[in-house]
């Protein structure tokens, strides 16, 4: 099973908090989920938003977490005013990509709780996005790493002709201390989905189990 180790996502989330109210310069920042492209030097040079807007990033933005050149990353981009498709990037945060895996092929599906904030389908239909709160902290010795993933329990054909995908969030706390909370974002790729497919997603939260429904 492909899982996303979230230590990097948590560190990045703690380093940047650009939201401000009022008339400060930061209050006018744009924020979008994007597919961002790096150049040969691993610096971000372009991005495509979930609304289908193509952006050229000038100057190119270098981030420590993006280590591969000529690569497309799923990310949350903070940027200034756009003029003729060109914008000045301020920061970019990684977003975990969680490809679907069959539960039958997964030895253990962990059901450790998370904090749930939001879930929505991107405007272009490419991703199902999640806003989660993970409990984290440091311990002496080797630091464990928690992970998240999404498994598919079953697929059922509906009277409409569409398919209903029954999904479940896997979360393995893996002994990470739960001292404080950190917001992370994750995106589930929806390649291969089509109308009138639909999705049921089960998430175990600290407040109990919840179920979210989405029509493609």
TrEMBL record:
Pfam families named in the record: NigD_C
Gene3D superfamilies: NigD-like, C-terminal beta sandwich domain
Alphabetical list of InterPro entries matching this protein: NigD-like_C_dom_sf, NigD_C
Domain NigD-like C-terminal span(s) in chain numbering: 108-213
Superkingdom assignment: Bacteria
Protein name in UniProt: NigD-like N-terminal domain-containing protein
Organism: Prevotella fusca JCM 17724
